[in-house]
Hints:
Layout: H1 3-19, H2 24-28, H3 38-50, H4 53-61, H5 67-81, H6 84-96, H7 107-124, H8 133-145, H9 153-157, E1 161-164, E2 170-171, E3 177-180, H10 182-189, H11 204-210
Parallel strand pairs: 1-3
Antiparallel strand pairs: 1-2
Helix pairs in contact: 1-6, 1-7, 3-5, 3-6, 3-7, 7-8, 8-10
Pfam family, one: MDMPI_N
Organism: Mycobacterium paraffinicum
GO molecular function: metal ion binding
Amino acid sequence: MSKAADALQDNDARLVAFLGTLTRDQWAQPSLCTEWSNHEVLAHLVVGYSATLPSIAAAMLGHRGSFDRTNSSMARALAARRDPHALVDDLAALTRQARGIGRVFPRRLLLGDHVIHQLDITYALGADPSIPAATLAAVLDTEVGIPNPFVPASARARGLNLVATDATWSRPSDGPTVTGEADHLASVLAGRPWALRHLTGSGVSVLAARLQPSR
């Protein structure tokens, strides 16, 4: 098993254990992922581990080829059909044996997706995510090192000198500096402006501008 696969497996185990403690009211609360409740974020994680390419392609036809709208629609539809406790059980089973695209999707990207959504839920609830520094460093490496058309973290990081204060991680650059805890850096690079207030340095304003929607 690869290092990324090991990290994903370990993180998923912690995530499933945490999700199993949430109450009905907590599932209904909004996450830090725009327009999704915590329940819908969980459904998205299950979709990502189980959807087939034909089902995704068919859904995209109904949304004029938009991956983002398809992604949101599939998560909401599953959340409407399955209650959170059933979905936690589904996720636990899928972490042991993924189906569909979950079997072939790069483990580094899945780890990043799961960690970011874990932060979306835990910080929305005021909980401690308890994600190891090494895992967050691996997510940051993926964000700044792998171009991703769906989550343009590498474009947001371009030219910035990024420094984590609580992990052995940095991305040196001659550009303006952004300093903060690894989870806050990862969350902002993934497009979550809520964590900007936890970052310092002359590059924070640059990051904030890059998070603004295109007009």
